[in-house]
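Quick log. Single chain, no ligands specified.
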Amino acid sequence: MIKKIIISVFLSLITFFSYAQCKGFTKRKCIPELGEYKFNGQLNTAVLTRGEEAELMLSFYSKQKYRLFVCAEEQLGDVTFEIMDRDRNIMYRSKDKGTNMFNFKVPSTQQLILRVITPGEGSKHALEFQGCTSVIVGFLEE
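-> predicted structure:
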């Protein structure tokens, strides 16, 4: 019983410290990349290993210009992303453009799916590097 409690506490602490690490990384390395775009205030972070993917749904509003930036720790390699509509039709691939920053404007308010992809294959090793990946959205009002 004591072992289960200790393991639960340990796993909770790892999750807490991973989130805190990602939050600090995002504030230091990612948000400044938005430049003149205003940060929307939402921290979208995930701790990933090589070969993993993560998806999230984001809302974008008409009459605003957006800058979307996917930022990841170097050890994860060249992380890429795709933007899809609700029917999962791919609208944009960062891999095709060679950059993890995308400036755009939507014709009408809509929700889009963002898929973040880390390169490589997953590993069965317990000590595989886990790295922070952040999705940062900035906007300019017209």
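The longest helix spans residues 2-30.
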